[in-house]
Amino acid sequence: MTDQQNTAANEEETAPQFSLQRIYVRDLSFEAPKSPAIFRQQWEPSVGLDLNTRQKALENDFHEVVLTLSVTVKNGDEVAFIAEVQQAGIFLIKNLDDASMSHTLGAFCPNILFPYARETLDSLVTRGSFPALMLAPVNFDALYAQELHRMQAAGETPTVQ
C-alpha cells in the first residue's frame, strides 16, 4: 500500500500543473494631443494596433506574462489619441517540457490576458471621451505558430526565460 501511495505522490509531483495566480494592470497610458479641437471635427478614424508579449521567470515555477496593446487612432492625418495598456499575469507552471512551456507562455497565457486588456483599453478610451474601441479577438495560437515558423526559418530556437 505504501508503494502505491509513493507512486501516486511521485506522479502528482511530476504531473503538469498550471494555475493563474493574479491578473493586474502593469502600466497604462493615454494621450489625446489634439484635444479639445479633435472633438469638433468629423469623426473618420483609422486604428493602428501593435501587440506584444513578454515573459519573465520568477521564483519557484512562477512566471510573469505581460501583454502590451498599443493603439494609435488617427482622424484623417491627425493623431486623435494614443492608448497603451500592459496587462500582466502571474502563473504557476510546473513540469512542462520546453516546447509545451514555450507554447503556454507564448500563446495560452496571452489568450487569458487579452479579454482583460481589451476591456481596460476600451474603458480608457471612453474615459477620454472617444467612441468605444472594442478590439476583435486575437488568435494567439496562430501568432505563436507564425513566430515559431519565422524563428525556425532563421535558424533560431525559442527560449523560455
TrEMBL record:
Gene Ontology molecular function, alphabetical: unfolded protein binding
Alphabetical keyword list: Chaperone, Cytoplasm, Protein transport, Translocation, Transport
Subcellular localization, as worded in the UniProt entry: Cytoplasm
InterPro entries linked: SecB, SecB-like_sf
Segments forming a coiled coil: none
Biological-process GO terms, alphabetical: protein folding; protein tetramerization; protein transport
One matching Pfam family: SecB
One Gene Ontology CC term in the entry: cytoplasm
Entry-linked PANTHER family: PROTEIN-EXPORT PROTEIN SECB (PTHR36918:SF1), PTHR36918
Functional note: One of the proteins required for the normal export of preproteins out of the cell cytoplasm. It is a molecular chaperone that binds to a subset of precursor proteins, maintaining them in a translocation-competent state. It also specifically binds to its receptor SecA.
NCBIfam families attached to this UniProt entry: PRK05751.1-4 (NF004393), secB (TIGR00809)
Stated family: Belongs to the SecB family.
Self-association state and partner proteins as the record states: Homotetramer, a dimer of dimers. One homotetramer interacts with 1 SecA dimer.
Protein name: Protein-export protein SecB
Lineage, top ranks: Bacteria, Pseudomonadati, Pseudomonadota, Gammaproteobacteria, Pseudomonadales
